[in-house]
Amino acid sequence: MNTPAYVYDKNRILGNIQKLKNAFPQFAILYSIKANPYPPLVHCIASQNIGADAASKNEVLLARAEGTAPDQIYYSGPGKTGIDLTETIDHCVLIADSFHELELINRIAEERGIVQEAGIRINPNFTMNGTPGTPGKFGIDEELCTKDAFAAYPAVRITGIHVHVQSQELDWEKIARYYENVFSLAVRIQQEIGHPLTFINFGSGIGVPYQEADASVNLAALGKRAAELVTIYRPQISAKLLIESGRFLVCEAGTYITEVLDIKRSRGKTYLIVAGGLNGFFRPAISAFAGDGHAAAEPLFTARDAWRITSDATTPETEVVDIVGNLCTASDILAENIRLPRAAVGDRITFTHAGSYACTLSPQLFGSQKKPEEVLLSPDILSH
C-alpha cells in the first residue's frame, strides 16, 4: 500500500451499524455522508438499508449513485439554491433550512403544478444541555414556526421536522432528554400545521470516545429510554423516526497511515518528516495549534490528543519527536513531543480515529502534493 493512505475497516463499520440497529429498533438510521463521502464506503453502508443525511446537492447525487433510494435521502444542508433544489427534488426528501428555501420550493412546485412535500429544519428553544436555545445559522427559530408563517407557501406541505443541536455527546442522559424535547416540539408543530408529521429527524449527537478518559455512550440505556419515549408519544406521533449516525459508524473504523521521509535533528529536537502532514490529515494539525483547554469546535477540533499514534519501528529504543509534514510551512505539524520507538526513514506512522472528518476536511491542494489514497478493507477484499 502506498502512503499516505486512509484505511477503513469494513467489518467494524458493519458492526457499528448493527449496534445502532440493536439499540434503536424503532428508528431508521441515516448515514451522515459529510463524515466520509468515499464512494465504496457510502455504497457499503447503503447496502445495509441505512439512509443518507445529505448536506449538499452532490451528497444527494452520491447517495443515489451508491444505491440509496430517494425516500431514504434527507437533504438538509443550509444555503440551497434554486438549482440545487431543482436538481434534487426528485431524488430525495427536501428539508428547508429557511423561509427563503421554502419560498424557492414553493416556486418550483407552482411551476410544476403540484403541492410539494418538504420538511423544515428547526432551531429549537433548547440545547443538548437543557439550556435555552441560541441564535444559529441552521434552521428556522422554533418560535417562528407558526401556522400563519407556513401559510405563505401554499404549494408546500410541511411533512417533517429536522432538529440537530450538537455533535459528539457522550452522556446518554443528555441525549435522552434532548430526544424528549424533540418529541415535545414535534407535537407542537403538528398542532401548528394541522396534520400529522410523516417523519421526525432527531439529528446526530451520539459521540465516540477519543481520549483514554472518555467512556462510550451507553447505547443500551439510551435505547431503552428512547423506546420508552416512543411508547409515551406514539398516541400523538405516528411519524417515521430518524437518527443520524454522525461520525459513529466510521470514525473509529478509519486509520491514517503515513511514512517517514526524513529525520532531522536540530538543536536538541528530533523531527520525523512524513508524507501528508496537515494536507493529509488536518485534524491533528489543528490540535497542535490549539492550546490546552481550547473549546471543541466540531468537526475541526474535538480535543487534544484525540487519536493514538503508533509506529511500526521495531527497535526497543525510544525517543521524543515532533511529527511534521513535508509542506513548506512551519505550521505543518501533526504531533509535538511524543515518545515513539526510534525511527528510521521508511518507517510507517499510524493515527487512529481517522474515519470521519479526515480526508475530505484536509486542504489537499496546499503545496500540490500527492493526495492520500483511500482503501475500504475487509478480510478478503480490497476496494480502491
UniProtKB/TrEMBL annotation:
<feature type="domain" description="Orn/DAP/Arg decarboxylase 2 C-terminal">
    <location>
        <begin position="6"/>
        <end position="355"/>
    </location>
</feature>
<dbReference type="InterPro" id="IPR022643">
    <property type="entry name" value="De-COase2_C"/>
</dbReference>
<protein>
    <recommendedName>
        <fullName>Diaminopimelate decarboxylase</fullName>
    </recommendedName>
</protein>
<dbReference type="InterPro" id="IPR009006">
    <property type="entry name" value="Ala_racemase/Decarboxylase_C"/>
</dbReference>
<dbReference type="InterPro" id="IPR029066">
    <property type="entry name" value="PLP-binding_barrel"/>
</dbReference>
<dbReference type="InterPro" id="IPR000183">
    <property type="entry name" value="Orn/DAP/Arg_de-COase"/>
</dbReference>
<dbReference type="Pfam" id="PF02784">
    <property type="entry name" value="Orn_Arg_deC_N"/>
</dbReference>
<dbReference type="InterPro" id="IPR022644">
    <property type="entry name" value="De-COase2_N"/>
</dbReference>
<feature type="domain" description="Orn/DAP/Arg decarboxylase 2 N-terminal">
    <location>
        <begin position="13"/>
        <end position="250"/>
    </location>
</feature>
<dbReference type="Pfam" id="PF00278">
    <property type="entry name" value="Orn_DAP_Arg_deC"/>
</dbReference>
<keyword id="KW-0663">Pyridoxal phosphate</keyword>
